[in-house]
Design goal:
alpha/beta; Rossmann fold; four-stranded parallel beta sheet; 8 strands; binds iron/sulfur cluster
Length: 358
């Protein structure tokens, strides 16, 4: 679809979801999407330099990525709403960027009542008043499907890539799939990319023991999912021949599960109240992993993330009740790769020895 002239919209880098943001903005909304550069040390330096000291790390990452998006030519920034202080971040991010001298249109979803369908129409019309709604709906749904494909293939990738019986074919198939998603311009290209990776992954012989070490990842929404922010935690574990399972992703949290009522019923004996945007899901997932006989759990959060700090004592109870070891990882802009690796290796050795003894 030809993009409407005059608006260049961007949304900060977030895991591998920017391929779907691009697809929805360009193919459904008919507006140019500016892909922010991949997150790097520079992104974090920019974000940290202009952020308040004690703000949680995703704020710094978002700010750094927004600056890089504006440098890359964006004139419109979209900011998500959120159930924790993320809901207030939009206002602060906008003010910091304006104080830095940038000129842009800022669409802050926290200013809309996202529980009402009419508000979505207002947002769509604000981005492109001439939007074709029939086309918008069809392409939007394809963008949503792309999110589901990315989550499905990513989950499968981290469960199996540590056991690739070839010289890296599994990883190559995953990378090619991501490239296909980032460049797809219509439904048939999206579907072809998905079918292609399914075929390619099936064709790779796996060298997997009958009972590999299995580790469940739980944690804060941004840090648990974004490989740059968690210093490629899942890849590091997979490279140690660990089967990695993470429930938390956009599909599971938002598309297939709306409201956490039923999930909360299942953990009521552990925690009587909702404690934050991802707390219930993380506690439920931690217990699910324990019940399935996983060898260990890793809890991932950003420094200063109050909701996930509240989850930690509950995880300790799960650890005690089910005799499952838990590693707690807290990330900030200074967390080093070497420090993380040392902790992961020690955790791996302990799990491995424990499994042999048990
Ligand atoms: S969940 Fe935690 S880290 Fe994420 S935005 Fe909220 S407070 Fe910050």
């Amino acid at each position: 679809m030809a993009a409407v002239m005059g608006r260049s919209l961007s949304f900060p880098r977030y895991a591998e979801y920017n391929c779907a943001f691009r697809y929805i903005v360009e193919e459904a909304l008919g507006v140019k999407y500016v892909m922010p550069p991949a997150l790097t040390k520079r992104t974090m330096e920019l974000g940290t330099k202009y952020s308040p000291d004690f703000v949680c790390t995703p704020f710094k990452t978002l700010l750094g990525s927004m600056i890089e998006a504006l440098e890359a030519g964006a004139d419109t920034l979209l900011m998500t709403h959120g159930l924790c202080r993320l809901g207030y971040y939009g206002e602060l991010l906008e003010q910091i960027l304006r104080d830095l001298g940038y000129q842009f249109d800022f669409i802050n979803l926290s200013e809309y009542d996202m529980g009402r369908k009419k508000e979505y129409l207002r947002i769509v019309r604000r981005i492109n008043p001439k939007v074709n709604f029939a086309r918008f709906l069809a392409e939007f749904m394809e963008g949503v499907r792309m999110v589901e494909y990315v989550d499905e293939i990513t989950a499968e990738y981290y469960q199996n890539c540590g056991f690739d019986g070839t010289d890296g074919d599994y990883r190559r198939a995953y990378q090619e799939f991501l490239t296909a998603m980032y460049t797809a311009r219509n439904r048939s290209e999206v579907e072809a990319g998905y079918r292609g990776v399914r075929r390619a992954l099936r064709a790779v012989p796996l060298d997997k023991p009958q009972r590999p070490l299995r580790v469940g990842i739980a944690g804060e929404f941004y840090t648990a999912m974004d490989a740059f922010s968690n210093l490629e935690l899942e890849q590091k574990l997979a490279d140690m021949r660990v089967e990695v399972h993470r429930w938390m992703n956009v599909t599971n949290q938002f598309l297939r599960y709306s409201g956490q009522k039923n999930m909360h019923v299942k953990i009521q004996d552990l925690c009587a109240y909702e404690m934050g945007p991802t707390a219930t899901a993380n506690i439920w997932w931690a217990r699910t992993c324990a019940e399935r006989g996983f060898d260990g759990l890793i809890h991932v959060k950003s420094a200063g993330c109050t909701p996930e700090i509240d989850v930690m004592p509950v995880l300790q109870n799960i650890s005690r009740d089910y005799k499952i070891p838990v590693l707690y990882l807290t990330y900030d802009a200074q967390t080093s790769d070497v420090g993380l690796m040392t902790r992961l290796e020690a955790f791996y050795d302990m799990l491995d020895m424990r499994k042999k003894v048990l």
